[in-house]
Automatic annotation (TrEMBL):
Pfam families according to UniProt: ABM
The keyword Transmembrane belongs to this UniProt entry's keyword annotation: yes
The name this protein goes by in its record: ABM domain-containing protein
SUPFAM superfamilies (UniProt xref): Dimeric alpha+beta barrel
Domain ABM: 12-81
Transmembrane segments: 134-153, 159-178
Gene3D superfamilies attached to this UniProt entry: 3.30.70.100
Classification via InterPro entries: ABM_dom (IPR007138), ABM_predict (IPR038762), Dimeric_a/b-barrel (IPR011008)
Species the sequence originates in: Geodermatophilus aquaeductus
Length: 200
């Protein structure tokens, strides 16, 4: 297992991995992935997950899991539940790439090879798409905070008022809204046609 630098162990961490499976077993892979993500949801520190395929009929499945910190991720990786889940895919799928990343961009970047030498992964979405995606949730959230928290704290000194608002908005953005919007806009972020969009 690749460990993160000490300074990054307390930051949210996203693990991205790619599995290759025969397209004839799409239903089995879909059920297997959903079972694993459902189990991960019950673990402390789990922040969200998602999966996509490059295109219809592709044999590659790209998955993301995000945890509050390295310790939470390691607890999931060492669990008996995850071990059972991995064993259940023997003969069905093989790992081709795995990578851990910290920070918001871990949600946007495509998996990059760290275990097996394979063809280059698709590039991360353009910066303007990343910025647009963040703005789509930041604007309404900031507007809501302005008319609620901002109004309630109108008589509080501006430095303290900004502190309270940012402390409220940052975890909402990082843990809830950004994972939610990136899952739903994954088809657009990675340049796939609308007809290939998968409902979440």
């Amino acid at each position: 297992m690749t460990s993160l630098p000490v300074a990054a162990r307390h930051l949210p961490v996203t693990v991205s991995f790619t599995r290759r499976a025969d397209p004839a077993h799409t239903r089995e892979m879909t059920a297997w992935i959903r079972a694993g993500l459902t189990m991960a949801e019950s673990f402390p520190g789990f922040l969200g997950a998602g999966w996509v395929r490059s295109h219809d009929g592709s044999d590659e499945w790209h998955m993301l899991c995000r945890f509050a910190d390295q310790e939470a991720l390691e607890a999931w990786e060492a669990s008996t539940e995850r071990a059972w889940w991995l064993r259940s895919a023997e003969g069905l799928a093989e790992v081709t790439r795995t990578e851990r990343r910290t920070g918001i961009e871990g949600w946007f970047d495509s998996p990059v090879s760290t275990e097996v030498v394979t063809p280059a992964a698709p590039p991360a979405p353009p910066r303007w798409k990343q910025a647009t995606t963040i703005w789509l949730v930041f604007y309404p959230l900031n507007l809501l905070a302005t008319v609620t928290l901002g109004a309630a704290l109108a008589d509080v000194p501006v430095a303290l008022r900004v502190l309270v608002v940012t402390l409220t908005l940052t975890p909402l953005m990082t843990y809830l809204l950004l994972p939610w919007i990136t899952r739903r806009l994954s088809w657009w972020l990675h340049g796939r046609p609308w007809r290939e969009r998968r409902a979440r």
